[in-house]
Amino acid sequence: MPPYHQAITAEAQHLQALPARRSEDYEEVSVRVTATSGFTLRRVFTSVPTRLMGHRRSARVHADHIALTLGTDHCLTVPRKPHQAGQGAIHVINYRHVIGALKTQPGALLNLVYRDDLFPRVEYQQCFETALEKCGAHDACRLTVKLLAMAHEDNCESA
Fold first, then answer.
1. So what's the pLDDT on residue 8?
2. Taking residues 135-140, what's their average pLDDT?
3. Distances in Å between the alpha carbon of 137 and those of 18, 40, 99, 103, 142?
4. Half-sphere exposure of 36 toward its Cβ, with a 13 Å CA cutoff?
5. Cβ distance 45 to 52 under 8 Å?
6. What is the mean pLDDT of the chain?
7. Is the separation of the CB atoms in 47 and 93 below 8 Å?
8. Residue 55 neighbours by CB distance under 10 Å
9. CB 45: neighbour CB atoms within 10 A?
């Protein structure tokens, strides 16, 4: 018999039974999806698909993600970035959520508050900046939005 067996046996006598259900490792809050296709939770703006605009959803806030539900039905899971004290505005943006609106107004890309958080990869941001230098703002926005739309529609983001 191992030497630690007595210690385990002595401690096991004092342990209580496990609860019938697992404890919840999330906090449930209610969020309203705005006309900008997103919601703000704890000073962090998170984008969601446009079909959720104007609706109130229940959000389960986990350590690394937020799960949106309607009743018991799961709607969407989005990554979570906690806000740090002294930090500016934080945006968790998925370009797929806003590409439809950008296609109708590509010029909005130029002054978009969360533009830098919108690009799925650094190469897209570099492409936009290069196009700004070479083609001007109007054409750079149109080109970048077309590029993002193509990446979304053809599912070829990395290519």
1. 87
2. 92
3. 62, 29, 18, 15, 9
4. 12
5. no
6. 87
7. yes
8. 14
9. 18
Do 109 and 141 touch, CB atoms closer than 8 A? yes
| Residue spans of beta strands (DSSP E) within 8-139 | 27-32, 38-41, 44-47, 56-61, 65-70, 73-79, 90-92
Give the DSSP H or E segment for 137. helix 137-153
Residue-wise pLDDT tens digits, 91-113: 889 999 888 889 999 999 999 88
Residue (of 123, 126, 117) closest to 94 by Cα position = 117
Structure-token match 């389960």, residue found:
60
Q: How many CB atoms lie within 10 A of CB 125?
A: 16
**What pairs with residue 1 in β-bridges?**
none
Helical spans, DSSP H, in 13-136: 95-104, 115-118, 122-135
pLDDT band at 1 (very low <50, low <70, confident <90, very high): low
Structure tokens at 56: 């109130």
Distance CA 63, CA 84 (A): 14
Could you tell me the pTM of the whole model?
0.73
39 - beta bridge partners?
46
